[in-house]
Input
Amino acid sequence: MKDRIKDLMAGILKVETSVLDDDLEIGDIQEWDSMHHVMIITGIEKEFGIKFQREELIDLETVADIVTLVEGKMA
Amino acid sequence: MIEKTIEDCLWSNAQLLGEKVAVKSGRSSVTYAELRAQIMAAATFYRSLPGYDTGKSVIISAGKQLEFLYAYFGAHLVGLQAVPVSEDINPNRFAYIKGKLAPLAAVGFDKIDTDVQKVPLASFSGLDCHASSFVLMPKPQDIADILFTTGTTGAPKGVPLTYANECAAAKQINSYVQNAQDDIELLALPVSHSFGLGRLRCCLMNGQTIILLGSFANVKKMFRTIEEEHVTGFTMVPASWKYLQKMVGDKLSQFAGQLKYIEMGSAFFSEEDKRHLASLFPNTRVTMHYGLTEASRSSFMEFHEDDANLSSVGKASPDVDIGIFDAYGVKLAPGEEGEICVKGSHVMKGYLWQDNANTFFGDYFRTGDCGVMTPDGYIYLKSRIKELINVGGKKVAPTEVDEQILKIPGVVDCACVGVPDPEGVLGEVVKGCIVKDPSSNITFDEIGAALVGKLEGYKIPVVWQWIEAVPKTHNGKIQRNLLK
Output
């Protein structure tokens, strides 16, 4: 699951998956700006058939946060 | 002392407010006294570079590091013209700028392949501030910065701004926004553009503390910073607000009692959005400007005060004169539609490397935008004459994108246009309309991937369409309006 999420994110950000360390924060790399963050959120929602709530989105800060949230929603 | 440049103000502030924090970026911060010392050290460093001479230019990667500030102001203190550009500038644009300027050095561009003397941004970190330094306080009439705007043909236009221009603009803005010396501002906008860089100048001139944040993307970090740093001033473009709305709804309003001012600008913001924002911040001075790189913030409005004219772009800024002119340069009466033209000491003197016969009507700079002025001075924008795409406040010339797409094998023809952002965040995004070679299997993803590194991310289309042919007039001019 984690690899699938990271691959999807890397594809949207057009970076190597290896760049996306668990601790990497939103905005830490130039490619991950607000426009691409929206694309990541929408992309994950479509790929996994889930819907994020605003309360969940405000708590996201790192790659690991995103993975944990998606895993939790899929469980 | 009457300060005639931002640098004069910085020097006064170092004297009067020496120990006050001027700028914070991540875990680093610098006081006004330290900032002056670092700028002087940076100036000394430039003088040691091979080929240094006053009047030369230096291209600087404009990011949120403190070293950017040292490199930027340091250049000014040894008679160099600063050319702040985006950190992710595409190689073609860099080469164009380099060709025009023959710069002394390029600061902070580790990845770009160029024969210009490259200086890492880290060179400005930890410089010896006690070494003897010799600085030249800038003269108001000299060129401080050269900014490059997006021209309609895609060729960037060189905008020279003098120290006097920048000082006048900062005074006008501070006078309107009413930010005070004890205000703490959060800046998440890019400093490679007129808006963000202008905010830096305004705050430093005013003796404020400004906190630099990479971008708006990390909302959690932004909110934490506003809370922990007791931020009282905030700036954004409409796309930032749309992004916040999408991510966290109206949650920014939890700081309504804390934020004394907000400045917005750079793109269209609907009357409905203005009214909504004003209602969330009943006691905040919520301002929005209309401006250009060539003429800073030319008009301003405040969402509460100008409640009855929210669909206008406000009135001329303090000490600025705006006139509406017809095509022959005749000033029109209120209510008549014409070109919006701006006069004031913040306005540039004329583009570099081109004939300026059509740049001004007398002392009035021609914005290229159409509008009308009401008898009480409100300006209503009717249309933009220029054919640019506005992606979240960043301007994109469609021809520049076309040019890169046409280099990709499998593409026969193409035309890019601006369309509403399907995510509802950026205002407009770039749509690529592609005519494919029938024998090619190329996909939109492959075209997009081929543009990475050739164009900045926001210029790469996010909406695509296959078309049979690009509609053109009999003169060969692309009819982009037919592709929207």
Summary: The two ends of chain A are 11 Å apart (CA to CA). Residues 50 and 74 of chain A are 8 Å apart (CA to CA). Chain A has one domain: 2-74.
